[in-house]
Amino acid sequence: MKFTPKHIDENLNVSKTHPLAELAWLVGGMLLLALVFYLVLGVTADLAVAKIPIKAEVWLGEPFVDSFEANEDEALRRRLQRLLDNLPADSPLHQYTFTVQLVKNEEVNALALPGGHIVVFSGLVEQAESENELAMVLAHELGHFAHRDHLKRLGRGLGLTVAAMLVFGEDSAISRLVSNLFLVTESSYSRQQESDADRFGLELLVNSFGHAGGATDFFARVGKKAGRRVPYLLASHPHPEDRIEELQSLIRENGYPVEKNAPLGDDLLSETEPEQEAETAVDQ
User: Fold this and answer.
1) Given the DSSP bridges, would you call strands 99-103 and 117-121 parallel, antiparallel or unpaired?
2) 3-state class of 142 per DSSP?
3) What's this model's pTM, rounded to 2 decimal places?
4) Where are the beta strands (DSSP E) in 186-237?
5) How far, in Å, CA of 218 to CA of 134, rounded?
6) What are the beta bridge partners of residue 11?
7) Are 114 and 151 in contact (CB under 8 A)?
8) Cα(19)–Cα(275) distance, rounded to whole angstroms?
9) Chain CA centroid to CA 159, Å
10) For 10-69, what is each residue's pLDDT tens digit?
């Protein structure tokens, strides 16, 4: 007898849904789960960082500090100490042992690294024209420590990297891709974190100098170079004009006086001179 297969219209193993539709549901479901995991991880990381002891943070920060070829800078340390001396008595920042390093680099930037390490690029010092402006920058970085922003930005990236390693293996290409992608994308502060650090920096600047002079000067100078707002929309930092407006609003609301800035000391300016010029001066 000849066997004739019969087409089965409905079966538990036979779906009437088009394969492409099933694929779309599968991919959509996975993306939704990944999004939920990412959001939960972010909230968990933000809650967990408040419980991390300073000693553990110092241990976490050692690899970051070793990645910069710089030594602690005495001239910057004196500026930082002036700010630390004017912190409120109950400030959690008193638990840190802060160090500040000067890196020869034209980039106009400063970094707060886990464990109480502040890195200042020489390009930033060259742009600063007063003690007040530099103090505002250092106070802003102290604001990130006060809110533990540097741990929050790393927490989500580290969590995703560990999760990828558990699922795909430590040597997996996917794990390396996740690590490279998220540790980079999570390495920037949010605009809200930057605004909160600006607010903290302004209050500390006033406590240290008795007035708010220099709070916006540096941002105004950087803003001229930043150019139009449109290319700045995707930047992690608020546009300098927005930072200036917010700071000036805080100055008016609190009635802070604005007085003349103190000049930037020669001890720090001499350290930012190009090495070639320094060698030429020695030869002469």
Assistant:
1) parallel
2) helix
3) 0.72
4) none
5) 8
6) 14
7) yes
8) 66
9) 17
10) 666 666 677 788 888 888 888 888 778 777 777 777 777 777 788 878 877 777 777 777
